[in-house]
Amino acid sequence: MINNENLTMLTDFYEITMANGYFQSGNVEDIAYFDMFFRKVPDGGGYAIMAGVEQAVEYLKSLHFTAEDIEFLRGKDIFCESFLDYLRNFKFTCDVWAVPEGTPIFPHEPILTVRGPVIQAQFVETMLLLIINHQSLIATKANRIVRAAKGRPVMEFGTRRAHGTAAAVFGARAAYIGGCAGTACAIADRDYGITALGTMAHSWVQMFPSEYEAFKKYAEIYPDNCVLLVDTYNVLRSGVPAAIKVFKELKPKKMGIRIDSGDVAYLTKKARKMLDEAGLTECSITVSNSLDEYIIRDIILEGAQIDSFGVGERLITAKSEPVFGGVYKLSALEQDGVIIPKIKISENVEKITNPGFKTLYRLFDRDNHKALADVMTLDGEEIPEVDGYEIFDPNAIWKKKRLCNFYAKNLRIQLFDKGTCVYECPDIEEVKEYCREQMETLWDETLRFENPQTYYVDLSQNLWDVKNKLIEEHTIR
Amino acid sequence: MINNENLTMLTDFYEITMANGYFQSGNVEDIAYFDMFFRKVPDGGGYAIMAGVEQAVEYLKSLHFTAEDIEFLRGKDIFCESFLDYLRNFKFTCDVWAVPEGTPIFPHEPILTVRGPVIQAQFVETMLLLIINHQSLIATKANRIVRAAKGRPVMEFGTRRAHGTAAAVFGARAAYIGGCAGTACAIADRDYGITALGTMAHSWVQMFPSEYEAFKKYAEIYPDNCVLLVDTYNVLRSGVPAAIKVFKELKPKKMGIRIDSGDVAYLTKKARKMLDEAGLTECSITVSNSLDEYIIRDIILEGAQIDSFGVGERLITAKSEPVFGGVYKLSALEQDGVIIPKIKISENVEKITNPGFKTLYRLFDRDNHKALADVMTLDGEEIPEVDGYEIFDPNAIWKKKRLCNFYAKNLRIQLFDKGTCVYECPDIEEVKEYCREQMETLWDETLRFENPQTYYVDLSQNLWDVKNKLIEEHTIR
User: Which residues contact A276 (CB under 8 A, 6 or more apart)?
Assistant: First the structure.
């Protein structure tokens, strides 16, 4: 993915065995619909943030099997030559719809749909899930952390603990969409325009005979923006006094200290006092030690004196829950232009899929523009705005609510039309700003870190009827 | 990393600000030593598995700054032209030593050391940590899961939940080193020779009018190895009966069923009985539903009838603890050929670094070849094998133990000599086999999943003396 290499073969092997199966069964031209959705927000949160669409688009644009791929598959001795020929001439011709990046998303919603010949629509499962699961995970986690920081900038500092190179780069990208101010990762700046910053490691301080000399040299070289790491030996007895001495002597334009260990609530209060007493009220304090949304919330409540945060491993790995469980399920077939809804049954009611080709609407309050509910309908259904609209909980249908004074917005956009990309991915700054705006449409109750109010994601009566008819048909008596 | 792209700029930005700092301070030729080590085994385990050395070697071989990199850095407006010239002609000339892949490793050990001009030795920090942290994390987790399976093959099935493309591919590689039998990820097979397998998704079953027809078609196409997914509708009432019918009719050479949901202990016992009663005793049962070492251990204890496991998200993200906390710290400087040990002090005793250029020995029992202890010494020290050797706990020096009848092995090998790679990375099969052998040198007490015995990692008396002298010098009174 970095540098647009061809990753067509980055797929679960079963996508290929199934493709060969469909090819040999004569199903090559069968049209199928697949939905991507997730069942549960990580960390027990009330919302997730869609991310990764740009990389998904790049992936779909670049799909093709190279001679090397064909040779590898031939070596497996289970594929026929006519199928390998088919792959050699493979061309992606599907339609794709998705929720744009930066949009808050909720469980069970079709956040992405692929329609097209079954071999193709099935084949792209693995990478679409991989890309969107990963970036949505990190964007969601970053958004929680940024909200905990209450307006103080949060930098993504996790490169060295990321799960490989793509996790570092696209994790930085997703964190930026979720609200981070920048990253430590230089290549994410070069390739994706995400501001990279960084100053010094403890080793810089160790390289010089004294902390004072290390700081002084740094301030001489970087007089415009001088952030000194003050915890190599002893923050309050050595690091901060040395920093104060250097700041007073060399007067850098912007000055700051960073603390990377110890009890940052205690240390920042003490350090702030020392800096202020030295007349350095404009000197900022950054902390960066195993932070996440819970610790940031707590140390701010304790009165820690912090101007910005660097968040590493717990952001870049989404440590508290490192899995975004997006799945990709068959929702319909098309025969002679007629859509035949398909369902996957499960013992667990939550795991039963929503069948059919669907439209996803978000209903907003006309007065305050808050999001009231999302409604899935069958494709082509419209939500009548004029006379009010009754929604009901699909898991408890007696729970009904009539919405008035709202407008409905189709949440999804088309990315591909018969294999041609018809979507221009917005600039990352635009995505980030869109995410910030959309987050403001959510109620505080949905935003709570723990035990949030469940946002309404309902089915239209028509879709509900179709679903229940299919469940009935599949019930074994 | 996939396809050897140049990732020189995949680095924390501070590596570059520090490099410019050293350049401008006239420290370009100063020789520094950096150690990579970790402080804590994930999941409270007793050992970790070293992995990622091959990718680290590839990275170091390919280090160079392109014109695009230089242009990007120039745009930051903080670097002088002479420094950018230096980068343009940058050539890696360091020495590098590391523990080979597949070796069990323990906290505080220098698992990798870089010696060379400080700018270079510092610069490679981010990527070396990223690569080795990631792969060691997954190899360690995989090894726990494989041990829980008690000889049953474990396949890595996590591609769709991996944190980006590199996490999928190198996660599959690391899982293989840790003992997995293969992967679902096709590109990991094509590029790294890790056997990829895969059969069908639920959508295959949904595409046909009935489960029976779906299974029959699959068995016709794959008569040599036919594994049927039996939980699309109802495992015991629909899936297994349909599979039995197809197996009896078509008699595939190898046959198996896979269950991906529900209570697999209960379902596999029932399914085994049904298969056996149908005379299909050779039909294997695979399960693959949110597994990890704890669940696998427990369902085997419950008598689940399972022949192999597919393990996805909890392996590929190391879900229970997704961070391998390797760090990279300055341990020495060299001036006029004399090594000057350096230390990083911390309030937390565990966080104080081990100074100096060191050798890492593993001491094995001459009779049963079990690992007795690891000992770090200053470079050049030897461990006398003949008259016995007294080790002591560096955190409790009154705890002493005299070892006799052992042999000492230098655990590390040299990867680079003045920038030239002098190491040929072994084949992945060799690494996997080496890992399996080395795991047999550990005691059961160290292998326990929870609350294992802490393996001895001690310092030689000389190293201990150097460390304490430095602590004394840095103590602020």
Answer: none
